[in-house]
Amino acid sequence: MQPIGHAPAISSSDSWLALSIGNSRLHWAQFTGNDLQHTWNTPHFSATDAQQCLASLTPNAPLYIASVVPQQSQLWQAYPSAHVITLEQVLLQGLYPTLGIDRALAVWGAIDTVGSPVLLIDAGTALTLTGAAGDRLVGGAILPGLRLQFQSLNQATAALPDMGTANLTVQHPLPPRWAANTADAIASGILYTLLAGLQAFVDDWWQQFPDSPVMLRGGDSDRLHSYLTAYAPALARQITIEPNLIFWGMRKVRGERLKDEG
């Protein structure tokens, strides 16, 4: 198992792996039955590294794959015990064909965790909001993620600096809203607009579904929650960070598959 990170070797006959292929990284989980044992992240793999990884797996150990990057998912589908998860396996009504499998699985995992209705905020490369009520998708929104918003200004302009990582390491305080230098002006424009937008979406959701839980996941979830705590502490206190929602959704897919096979 060393080629895919720091997971212990699979020894139980009831052990299986989950692989969520995101835009920036591979997200792994090892389960024994329904119990999560370990999670870790790796960069995207080359074809050679993927072949070496697959050769290291315990024979017949199931590998469940959910991917939003077709070029990466192709590297893993040759594994004999690979199960590629599709939208049809997520038992929610109202899913549309272009909905990302990561969003569908994460909101299904959120329902399994806290019930329904539920609103999920995913702070990854893209920042998405996905709401569900009962067993139906209500809908959502997509915008560039926190890092992508900072990076895009540098990439699309001649004079603005690269703020992709420098300002994102700052937890508190928020930058001055009325900034007196370019770096703070970029941080102010992006962060205050983003935070106000999130608050507006959550408030609208609560108008429709009062007392609905709000869940937060994704690579920038801790950072975003920290900014929300500074901007709107009452809102931040009502948001729960849960990094493993996609894995809970994948676990449900596996459970339904085993039920059908049994």
Automatic annotation (TrEMBL):
Protein EC: 2.7.1.33
Matching InterPro entries: ATPase_NBD (IPR043129), Type_III_PanK (IPR004619)
Ligand binding (K(+)): 122
Record field: catalytic activity: (R)-pantothenate + ATP = (R)-4'-phosphopantothenate + ADP + H(+)
GO BP: any one term: coenzyme A biosynthetic process
SUPFAM superfamilies: Actin-like ATPase domain
List of residues binding ATP: 20-27, 125
Residue ranges the record marks as coiled coil: none
Keyword Lipid biosynthesis assigned: no
Gene Ontology cellular component terms for the protein in this record: cytoplasm
Subcellular location: Cytoplasm
GO MF term set: ATP binding; metal ion binding; pantothenate kinase activity
Binding note for cofactor: A monovalent cation. Ammonium or potassium.
Keywords: ATP-binding, Coenzyme A biosynthesis, Cytoplasm, Kinase, Metal-binding, Nucleotide-binding, Potassium, Transferase
Residues that, per the record, bind substrate: 96, 100-103, 182
PANTHER family recorded: TYPE III PANTOTHENATE KINASE (PTHR34265)
Function (record text): Catalyzes the phosphorylation of pantothenate (Pan), the first step in CoA biosynthesis.
HAMAP family documented for this protein: Pantothen_kinase_3
Name recorded for this polypeptide: Type III pantothenate kinase
Species this chain originates from: Stenomitos frigidus ULC18
